[in-house]
Design goal:
- By secondary structure, the protein is an all-alpha fold.
- Helices cover 78% and strands 0% of the residues.
- It is built from 11 helices and no strands.
- α2 packs across α4 and α8 runs antiparallel to α9.
- The longest helix is centred in the middle third of the chain and has 26 residues.
Length: 192
């Protein structure tokens, strides 16, 4: 029953992110992203990413790599965000299952899957779906690391999140503050 419920939520969540994806024209920020990815070569794109401090590179690199497969239309250029936003649902489920249990995880993934905010951003040719994915992975990695498992997921997803949106550093700083607050209670956590 749980697997069927989860599968149904994931399928409906994917449909909501994909339905009429190319119907709307690009809005200003999407057109900006499209212009950089489609109309520049790798050298020009990389130079621009280094020159403009408000532009984080990972989204542009991912879309540039996937452009030959998905195309430059409104539908094709938004499709990587759809898949990334959908993948974030699976990560939310795994995080929720590890932290609280299966039914709570299904509730969490249902909230994220049907949230208009996450649907909107998964349909947007901007880095927000990627940011959600790495935010969930960072939280899951931190939760696992705090329980004595590897710090690799936490570190890798924190770095990828930073390359997606510079403000994700604040998320990592909040987790570091938590570690420092637990120093006297769990001194081994700080040493890890």
């Amino acid at each position: 029953m749980k697997r069927l419920t989860l599968l149904l939520i994931l399928l409906v969540g994917f449909f909501l992110r994909l339905h009429l994806l190319g119907r709307e024209s690009f809005w200003l920020d999407e057109a900006y992203s499209w212009g950089w990815v489609v109309n520049t070569n790798w050298l020009t794109l990389w130079s621009a990413l280094q020159e403009f401090s408000d532009v984080t590179p990972l989204f542009y690199v991912v879309n540039k790599l996937l452009l030959p497969f998905f195309g430059a239309s409104e539908f094709g250029f938004r499709l990587p965000s759809v898949f990334i936003g959908w993948l974030a649902l699976a990560v939310v489920y795994r995080l929720g299952r590890d932290m609280f249990g299966s039914w709570q995880a299904i509730l969490a993934v249902m909230i994220v899957a049907f949230s208009p905010f996450t649907i909107w951003h998964a349909r947007d040719a901007r880095p927000y779906a990627l940011y959600l994915l790495f935010g969930a992975l960072t939280l899951w990695g931190f939760w696992k690391a705090e329980r004595g498992k590897s710090w690799l997921m936490f570190v890798a997803s924190s770095m990828a999140g930073y390359l997606t949106n510079y403000l994700s550093a604040l998320f990592t700083y909040a987790q570091a503050a938590y570690i420092f607050s637990r120093f006297k209670i769990q001194p081994t956590l700080f040493r890890q």
